[in-house]
Amino acid sequence: MAKVLVVEDEIEMANGLKDALMFDGHKVSLAYDGEAGLNEAVSGAYELILLDIKLPKKSGFDVCREIRAQNIRTPVIMLTARGREVDKVLGLELGADDYITKPFSVMELLARIKAVLRRYADKQSNGGEWIRIGKLKVDFSRYMAEDDDGPLELLHKEYEILKYLWEHRGEKIRRDQLLDRVWGYDVFPSTRTVDNYIVKLRKHVEDDPNRPKHIITVYGIGYTLIA
Ligand code: CA
């Protein structure tokens, strides 16, 4: 049994999903547009979110991205139409856990839900691996971080940047590489945005953010992580 949020603007579809999920023992809330869906999702009251893509007020793509940006880790299954929407779900790093293409059978959907919930529970219970970078301890698989004073709340993008640097520690990472990896392909923030996040990360990691020993600037290129 899970508390499920269904974000779907087609009333019949929404009600059909609600009935099927309730029949399977889940508790269901409905939201009929992207804004309402996002507001519900960030309440953190749900264990699973079914998210349609074409929604009034805010697309499912944006809703998913914003949920993750607020560091809400609730599993998300996108409901997509065939074709370009599927390509986009796969191509963008939205942070969705799975997708299902319309039309789908109830059986298929329930099986997907079960699999996603199981994966999520495994991830939570296996715990991750604490990694130390400077004065920060971080567990990338569970998006948790702490320092000697206790738990810290990092932004989703802070985790993603630090994770990428960690996976390529010792290498010189270009700013545009980070933009590609962390921001995806359809948004174009400037490389200055990367620098702003690095400033934030140094506050967490470095003893003296003005004299970094771990997140080092490589002039004219980008950054390298020494850990
Ligand atoms: Ca729709």
Q: Could you explain how this protein is built, in words?
A:
- The protein is α/β, with parallel strands linked by helices and 227 residues long.
- The protein is built from eight helices and twelve strands.
- The chain has two domains: 123 residues, 3-Layer(aba) Sandwich (Rossmann fold), CATH 3.40.50.2300; 95 residues, Arc Repressor Mutant, subunit A (Orthogonal Bundle).
- 42% of the residues lie in helices and 21% in strands.
- The strands form three sheets. A five-stranded parallel β-sheet has the order 2-1-3-4-5, sandwiched between helices. A four-stranded antiparallel β-sheet has the order 6-7-8-9, with no helix packed on it.
- Helix 2 packs parallel to helix 3 and helix 6 packs across helix 8.
- It is elongated.
Describe the secondary structure blueprint for this structure.
Elements: E1 3-7, H1 11-23, E2 27-31, H2 34-41, E3 48-52, H3 60-69, E4 76-80, H4 84-91, E5 98-101, H5 106-126, E6 131-133, E7 136-139, E8 144-147, E9 150-152, H6 156-167, E10 173-174, H7 175-183, H8 191-205, E11 215-218, E12 222-225
Parallel strand pairs: 1-2, 1-3, 3-4, 4-5
Antiparallel strand pairs: 6-7, 7-8, 8-9, 10-12, 11-12
Bound molecules: calcium ion (CA).
Calcium ion binds at residues 9-10, 52, 54-55.
